[in-house]
TrEMBL record:
This is Isochorismatase domain containing 2. Residues 16-138 form the Isochorismatase-like domain. PANTHER family: HYDROLASE, ISOCHORISMATASE DOMAIN-CONTAINING PROTEIN 2. Pfam families: Isochorismatase (PF00857). Interacts with CDKN2A. Belongs to the isochorismatase family. Gene3D superfamilies: Isochorismatase-like. InterPro entries: Isochorismatase-like_dom, Isochorismatase-like_sf, Isochorismatase_domain.
Amino acid sequence: MAAVKPGLGRVLPGSSILFLCDMQEKFRHIAYFPQIVSVAARMLKVARLLEVPVVLTEQYPQGLGPTVPELGAEGLKPLPKTCFSMVPVVRKELDARPHLHSVLLCGIETQACILNTTLDLLDRGLQVHLVVDACSSRR
């Protein structure tokens, strides 16, 4: 029996979505935060140019504050969340896009929110592309 060779998959505008996870005011102290936000902002600009849908979340916004303005996320309504994964709060968005194959993921708290979001997306059969220059954690 031949082994199945896992594939990375291509990121195509018509079947992809950009997730921006928790780039909020209280995380400004994270090392390389300006660089992380800058790369994520470029990803957002490209997504808008290519008409790739974008989802933005904020972890417990009452305590961690709003999304930082330099992300350039004007016009996006942040979805508040209180669990690590983005998937529970974006489930309707995912279900409404049956043609979706891949998720580009940027954000904060790699060891918690990014990890759990990635695992949940993989469980749904989606390809996950971490933009490593746009991800970090507090420690």
